[in-house]
Amino acid sequence: MQQVTRSTIVQSMITINRDRVLPADGEVVARGGQEVTAVQVVARMPQNLDFHILPVAEQLRLSTEDLKKHLLVTEGADVQVGTELIGKRGMFKKPYASPIDGEIYRIQEGRIILQRTTGWLELRAMVPGRVIEQIPGRGVIVQTKGSQIQAVWGSGKEANGALKVAGERDEPLTAAHFSIETSKHLVVAGRIDDQQALHAAVKNKVGGLIVGSIKAHLLPAVRALPFPVIVTAGIGRLPMSLPVYAILTKGEDREAALFGDPATSRNGQCEIIIPYEDGEKVDSPAANEPITIGSKVRVSRAPYQSHVGEVIKLYVRMQTTDLGTRAHGVDVRLADGREIFVPYANLDAIR
User: b or e along 319-339 (b: 16 or more beta carbons within 10 Å of the residue's beta carbon)?
Assistant: First the structure.
């Protein structure tokens, strides 16, 4: 029968192609074949966030139709401080000029709406590597080598910094885990159970958090944090899986990158990348390889959710589950030695 399972990459050494793409059209500044550092800007775009409304018709005592006759600008035009918006010269006591740098966003009902140019949104590589492809007007693809961990949830932000393991894989994060040694670091812990831990992380000015799980009621507060949070196992009270914790522990004190927005990834998953210069180069695994005897898998449903194990038997025919239903699946030996039957729909293949 055809297997239908999700695939999650948890690899200690792998070749990684990471997309770095602007949210809208901009300027790509990195060239194909160029070696880049993690902090190097690879693309950029103007960042327009602020609006300024000028009630021109009211101030000059003009009708909407009369105002249209004297406009010197059109929608979409760029303006600087002092750019004259209204003519003809001599009709008014003084020139009516733009008070800001920006763009004419809209002209309606006798008003000119300016969109302020607040600067540039600069897109950094986030990982050291080589640009293997340019995406015209949007960004680049950077190839690097190292550890890659795909996660189940992220808070939407990204950051890089040195890894610091603050707790065991099944230990809740508390204020006691933070010190001067964790400031600006990407802090690794088992799980987040309460908001006090989040307050302590903000106070300590950490660069990011990596945990196995988080309580569902904390998700809104986590999204509002100034740094990214990556969840590797699931929502609830789950330990971080052994393979993930082992990779993060091995990478302690190394620079890593957190990508907490699945929309920025070609596979639609949040991820952690720990670049390495040494070690053997390994090709990226195929996400659609079938599960076989010996495959590493993670259970995605209760009562064994987040448990990692090894496939020890494949079934051709459907088997009866603990709930009395019938499904195609496999037998899995968990890390503690227990052997359980798991339907394919409840498996997450670890590549």
Answer: eeeeeeeebbbbbbeeeeeee
